[in-house]
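User: Structure please.
Assistant: Input sequence and predicted structure:
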Amino acid sequence: MMRLKDVPNRSEIGEKIEKADKEMEEKGEMLDQIATDLETIRHTLENLDLGGTREGADELEASFENTDQTTTEVFNEKDGELEQVQEENKEYESEIEERKNSSEGDLGKVSEASARINTTESINELLKAKEAGLQEIDFLKDQIDRVREAMSKSDSIQEDLRNRISTNQRR
């Protein structure tokens, strides 16, 4: 039997999900800024006249290419950080799923016990336990949905940003 101190309360679960959602959103915003920087760098490079001297043009072009490379490396680093947060979120989703399954198992045990109880008062109290179990399961299902929604949003943003970067890469 799991110790009650090892079980998080509902507000802790909600706060952890909210924190992860906010972190994924912030990292997505950072990636968007970096992607915008890369687009600006690439667009500017493409639109340079480079009409001065060969040496000046070569230096300017090399500088922009280095800037592109450095900014791409930063993007990849931040993208990896977002991946890490997403992975942690997936693990937490699995943990909540396990908790939901545990609650469903407990509800089944309460149902089995109530089928063997004969006194009205005891049956009435077990009905309250069943209701509490159903509320717990609903809460955990809602939290799983929140995690999945946040993940889906983050995945979509991340994929769009990756596509922006790869589509706008200089050939």
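The chain is about 85% helix and 0% strand.
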